[in-house]
Amino acid sequence: MAREKKRRSNGRRSPLAAAALIGAGLMITGAVYAGTSAAFAATDTQTAASSTLTVDDGEKLFTANCATCHGLDLQGTPNGPSLYGVGELAVEFQMSTGRMPLQMQGPQAPQKEPQFTEDQILAISSFVQESAPGPTFPEDHLLDGGGDVANGAELFRVNCAMCHNVAAAGGALTEGKYAPALTETSALHMYAAMVTGPQNMPVFGDMNLSDEDKRDIISALLYQQQSVQIGGFSLGSLGPVSEGLFVWIFGIGALVAITVWITAKSN
């Protein structure tokens, strides 16, 4: 019996052996995963590099998806306006924000998820620009957010706040139309909106706002997007209307509730 116990004790594995096996398994699994990820990343890079589309590709995409409303010759139809003079900037804006292709007829084209990839949108934009030139993409420094924020805020208040709200939170217009919020709008789309005048927005040419003025407005809006809200809830940034409604409902409501409770208690 003593010998049997000794054999069993010699055959036992050390508690550290299991930990060593688990550690080795984790290291091997991690190495395989890292190698696989690197291989997939290299494949994705090559695919992205080779997926650049041409103007001819843009023409085919336009014919298949846009010509029904805008016409094969871009001169428009009863269902859609002419695209002559709109340029690639307007096309990129409308398609990247998902406003086009139009989902349904209505007072205004709503913003939604884009139905095309960035490469496809740029290809269609290039085709439109080549066939019917118009406003093109701005220089990079106009979108860098390095303009005069104070001047931009003043220009925004004078030219844009009556529709988009002082806090750029958007606002209602007539006949079911509305000015969208600018709290998440990119610098490129801010510039495109000022230059091309989408929906109900007017076109701000150089006689109204110079490129530097547009840069200042974009800088002010970007600064506002990145700034930290101080003072608790912003209440939608709608100003005294929402704040007064909040006080009326919750403040007066609380006083009424306390009054009713005191009266019931005394009775």
Automatic annotation (TrEMBL):
It comes from the Bacteria. Keywords: Cell membrane, Electron transport, Heme, Iron, Membrane, Metal-binding, Repeat, Respiratory chain, Signal, Translocase, Transmembrane, Transmembrane helix, Transport. Gene3D superfamilies: Cytochrome c-like domain. Its EC number is 7.1.1.8. One of its GO terms (molecular function) is quinol-cytochrome-c reductase activity. Heme c 1 binds at residues 66, 69-70. Pfam families: Cytochrom_C (PF00034), Cytochrome_CBB3 (PF13442). The chain crosses the membrane at residues 245-264. One of its GO terms (cellular component) is plasma membrane. It is an enzyme of class 7 (translocase). Its main location: membrane. Residues 1-41 form the signal peptide. Binds 2 heme c groups covalently per subunit. It catalyses: a quinol + 2 Fe(III)-[cytochrome c](out) = a quinone + 2 Fe(II)-[cytochrome c](out) + 2 H(+)(out). PANTHER family: CBB3-TYPE CYTOCHROME C OXIDASE SUBUNIT FIXP, CYTOCHROME BC1 COMPLEX CYTOCHROME C SUBUNIT. The cytochrome bc1 complex is composed of a cytochrome b (QcrB), the Rieske iron-sulfur protein (QcrA) and a diheme cytochrome c (QcrC) subunit. This is Cytochrome bc1 complex cytochrome c subunit. It comes from Microbacterium foliorum. The lineage of its organism: Bacteria, Bacillati, Actinomycetota, Actinomycetes, Micrococcales.
